[in-house]
Amino acid sequence: MKFVTMMAAASLTASALFAPTLVQQADAKPKLGLSCGGASWYALRSRTASGEMMNPSAMTAAHKTLPLGSKVKVTNLRNGKAVVVRINDRGPFIKGRLIDLSRGAAKKLGFINAGHTRVQIEPADGSVTQDCA
Hints:
Elements: H1 2-27, E1 35-42, E2 60-62, E3 71-76, E4 82-89, E5 97-102, H2 103-109, E6 116-123
Parallel strand pairs: 1-5, 2-4
Antiparallel strand pairs: 1-6, 2-5, 3-4, 3-6
C-alpha cells in the first residue's frame, strides 16, 4: 500500500512540474497575418462557440483557428468594401472557405445575394500592410 501511495505522490509531483509548460503552450495565441480566400455568410439563431447567441445583424464571424474575441478586418476583393468583425464562432466547414460572416457583415461587404465572395483578412489594428495577389 505504501508503494502505491508513493507512486501516486510521485506522479502528482511530476505532473505539477510539467503543468506550467502545458498551460503556457495553451495560452500562446497564434499571430494573425494576412489571409486570402473564400467567405460566406450565415444567420442562425443558436449559440456560437463563444457561448453567446448568434446575432445575424452583429459584426461577427466564424473562423477555424483564430482566437475567439479576435478582431479582424475583412475586405471584399470584388468591390473593395471592408468591415471589422469579431471572431465569436468556429467554422466554416466547407472546403475552400476561410471565414463565415454574419448576415450583417455580409450585407455591408455587399455579397448577400451572391452568398459567397473572395476576401482578404488582416488584423484590425493594421499591423499588416500587404495585399492579396
